[in-house]
Amino acid sequence: MRAFRYLSLIACLFVLNGFALSQNNFILRPAATANVNTIAQHYGLTVVEPLDSQDSVYLVTAPPSQSVQQIETEVGSDSEVTDIEPDQDVDVPELNQSTAAILDSLPAPTSVQYYGSSVLGAYLSQQAVSLVNLTDTQNSYQATGDGIVAIIDTGVDPTHPALQNALMAGYDFVHNQPGSASEWVDLTPDNVTALQQSSTNVAAKNTVAFVNQSTAAILDQSTAAILDMPNMPKAFGHGTMVAGIVHLAAPTAIIMPLKAFKGDGTANLSDILRAIYYATDHGANVINMSFSLTSPSDELGDAIQYANVNEVICVASAGNTGTTSVGTPASLPQVMAVASISNSQQRSTFSSYGPAVFIAAPGEGVITTYPGDNYAEATGTSFSAPFVSGAAALGVQMDASSYNDSSQALSHANPLTSGLGNGGLNAYQAVQSLVEDN
Fold first, then answer.
1. pLDDT means per 10 residues in the chain (438 residues)?
2. I need a surface site. Which of 3, 6, 165, 265 has the fewest CB within 10 A?
């Protein structure tokens, strides 16, 4: 009998580090009447591609001989240019968080049906489900979610039994490929083989293992023996885990996977922008963003504004700084910034908090899906945000299809200590408020 392979990720959040450049790339927005090719020719730039469907913002490259400051000063002062900023590089920081999860009390493994899929019983019976009041919401109001939730992340495992019926075609911006946006492309052949040896019998998964974020994978002993751990991407599985939480909260909503991050947790800001514009133009109702920038970006704000104008509900993780420093996009107007709380409804010590936070949701020891027919335990605000994205999809089912309607409904939350916005997510109260208003 193969052991239950369980992953413990500690405070996994994508963070944009300063102004590191990707091949001297910049994001350029010409003035409305200007020609991008003329601007590029004048300053020795090369136009790579538009980042949106309106051809209003572009990725360009500059000669390596020109400094970042020189490009920003010279090009930015041109009256034909609205904005130019570096295409920053993104990676996952190593956070010194101790392993917080002790799963000795995990119930005996069982396989149960959840909206057409066989899932691990502990996935449904975990305390986070009761904290956000999902079962009562489903039973009392038949609220199970509607619309499309776009997840900008590392991709997804398109073959995971719990998720495959909830997925639509997405896009891999890392490799510029439409389709499944699969996380598997980031693995070595040996690691693909090892992960695919997972037991398909959910009830057979009965042994818990723990690893920290830097290891980023947990398997039973027989599989671990053949894993190439040095080449195991440290953020592999992050997108699948986020998707599993969205599906847990809104099992009949559709998930659009958008791969902007590589398996090692790195991404370019330009790919994140492309993903936001793509989601908006392809019918997304909600966008989940479990990442954060440490430096401001005007273009990220413009992309979020475009999404909001088109009635897309934007949700982002508040960050894992343990301070009142809430990252971008969570700190932007009309983005729901989500902090993390423990199962005792206290602020997680690692969670960012403060006036910019809109709401809090469980983010410690959350049981969710992991590639290779597996389940994982995840900790961090990255995994609090998808509870709110899923709850927003419940609201979409009740015709709360704009940021204003959704935020008003979700503000009916459980009162908590200061710094956590409206309090702890309560899906039942949010849906109830929409039913009563109709």
1. 39 45 81 96 95 95 89 95 88 34 45 90 93 96 97 94 96 96 88 67 36 29 50 81 96 97 84 96 96 83 96 94 90 95 94 96 90 82 95 96 95 95 97 90
2. 165
Q: From CA 32, how far away is CA 131, in angstroms rounded? A: 48
Q: What is the CATH number of domain 6-14+95-437?
A: 3.40.50.200
Number of Cβ atoms within 10 Å of the Cβ of 309: 10
Residue 110 to residue 285: CA distance in whole angstroms:
33
4 Cβ contact partners less than 8 Å away, ≥ 6 residues apart: 109, 204, 205, 206, 207, 208, 220, 375
Whole-prediction pTM: 0.88
Q: The tokens of 326 are what? A: 């809430």
The string over 36-75, giving b where at least 16 C-beta atoms fall within 10 Å of a residue's C-beta and e elsewhere, is: beebbeebebeebeebbeeebbbbbbbeeeeeeeebbeeb
Cα–Cα distance, 307 to 276 (Å, whole number): 7
b or e along 315-354 (b: 16 or more beta carbons within 10 Å of the residue's beta carbon)?
bbbbbbbbeeebbbbbbbebbbbbbbbbeebebbebbbbb
Give the per-residue pLDDT at 90: 64
Q: Which two tokens stand for residue 345?
A: 């409804």
User: Can you give the residue ranges of every domain in the chain?
Assistant: 6-14+95-437, 19-91
Distance from the Cα of residue 37 to its chain's centroid: 34
Residue positions counted in the chain: 438
Residue 94: the pLDDT is 29
What per-residue confidence (pLDDT) applies to 216? 30
Fold exhibited by the domain 19-91: Alpha-Beta Plaits (3.30.70)
DSSP string, 234-277: TTTTHHHHHHHHHHHH-TTSEEEEEE-S-TTS-EEHHHHHHHHH
